[in-house]
């Protein structure tokens, strides 16, 4: 009988998850604010104030990372939303090839980023790569996708979209499928056409799915590292360096303080852009 | 919804078709052309890169250096795979073992600890609930702090160890996992808990033999998400699991990239080997995986 009286929902259940999460995620996050203001060798540290941040923000090789991180996040998330929505609408139709197309589009999401990065570096080879060979067949001279400082970042972003659009698509399909049939019936009685259906039913009612895609791909874009590292290592020059790749380079060079400062800057960028976006898009959903 | 977009055999539609048969035929033809076009585009954009990897993994070094997608003159896929397995004293076998252990251990810990946390966080609302919600939200959005995590691992002697990387993977996947379990708990009526307790069921037994089995659909989602996420993870092993013996499949592939810059065939064979487990899983559990990853993203 004692069991009934005492509360069965004890925080004991929270203990293992809570301990792991606090020790291996929250604690390092809090520590990073301190260590970002030190000259640090892991065993020893000296407090140097905001010096690391000054270095990070004044060095052209580092502050280029800001611009690139934000461009990359906007381009990848924008394309994933647009292409994912179009594919989602198309694949919600009753067509014979839906299963095939959906599987093909989705499969890259299961592949390793490094493998995709390597494969596309060879496909994007300026003289031998398949993409430029195909373009020369139809009379175009393809650019040096990864070697031209002006377009290298966008080339990597396109590969990111190739790999990630499948997830966006299946999220949109789930959202579109959950729209009640009655709306469509109402529309057909009122004599609406396909455009009206898209504009007045599909688009507004798949809004939750769109919010999910925007949030996921935007945050993913801001935090991205492995695809850029596998394809360009931040080059040529520093033209594709993003904040996360600079963090890694500074870590490799042994500048742990600067690396951690970069990490804090990435927190601030992500938080400053993603939290407001998250709250704005979820403003009607009360419970987290 | 399907009915609406496809011209379905509804009476109204039939009437319409009888009056204007030509237009109806045009529409069907149009749909067929659209569909063929869509399939062609899909094959070009998504099929060719995969085919490209496959044929180049089966060529000899000289042919694969041309980076084209002609069929290999001598098909030596098996030999190439054997060479990859023999490289660096069988490094890839060690990598397979490490990746499997890290992935499976992370899945098990996440299911148990995540379900426990999600359960109590749904059932018990206290003053600290908003704080916990905030911490979960932080974990969903903020990237991990790299060097401080290394410092923490180093101070407790777990840097460059298997338990270390497993715990980091678990910590980073926990916010999402807990959120999934917590929202699914809403579908399990609280009266069930009460009935079990009245029948003399203990707190632990209530969770482990009644609640946990009911959470199976979420656990399936967690397995899919964690398997894909941890198996393909490159960044965390790169930082927290370095060292010659500490290979994971993704790290080995990355190291092969510089090692085999002149032997593309072996690099592609390596890519093929690494992509095989996800491919096999996808062939058998296509719907389950798509559903899992979708449910995963739409909380």
Structure description:
The complex is a heterodimer of chains A (288) and B (299). Chain A has 288 residues and is mainly α. Chain A has one domain: MetI-like fold, CATH 1.10.3720. Chain A is built from 14 helices and two strands; from the N terminus they run H-H-E-E-H-H-H-H-H-H-H-H-H-H-H-H. Chain A has helices at residues 2-5, 15-35, 51-58, 60-91, 98-106, 113-123, 130-137, 152-177, 181-189, 194-205, 207-223, 226-231, 243-252, 256-281; strands at residues 38-40, 45-47. Chain A has a two-stranded antiparallel ribbon with strand order 1-2. Chain B has 299 residues and is mainly α. Chain B has two domains: 2-57, no CATH class; 84-297, MetI-like (MetI-like fold, Orthogonal Bundle), CATH 1.10.3720.10. Chain B is 79% helix and 0% strand. Chain B contains 14 helices and no strands. Chain B has helices spanning 2-5, 11-19, 21-57, 61-64, 77-123, 129-141, 146-155, 162-185, 190-198, 203-214, 216-231, 235-240, 249-259, 264-297. In chain B, helix 6 packs across helix 8 (162-185). Chain B is globular, with a radius of gyration of 26 Å. The two termini of chain B are 23 Å apart. Mean pLDDT of chain B is 84; it is low at 1-20. The chains are: A mainly alpha (288), B mainly alpha (299). At the A-B interface, helix 2, helix 5, helix 6, helix 8 and helix 9 of A face helix 1, helix 3, helix 5, helix 6 and helix 7 of B.
Describe what is shown at a glance.
The complex is a heterodimer of chains A (288) and B (299). Chain A has 288 residues and is mainly α.
